[in-house]
Predict the structure.
Amino acid sequence: MADRRVTASGKDRDGDITRLCNGGEYWSPRSKADAISDIESKTHSYFVDRAGYRTDIHVVNEGGKKYLRTYADKTSQNNLDNLPDC
């Protein structure tokens, strides 16, 4: 399993995450659906490391829809919503 660092995220007009990105990597951009599949099948993991804080990206299921989220920690700089757009 490859551990993939995310440095940017794509968002739709509602602010939902649509893709994960790291401009220096061959796998980028990775669609939300593909990233969810990677995480659930344990093929790849994804994480954000900003301001010295690393947090893993996980899948949440709300109302029958799946979303990508980071775990809450001491900083909001590593939240997917706060990453630069890609």
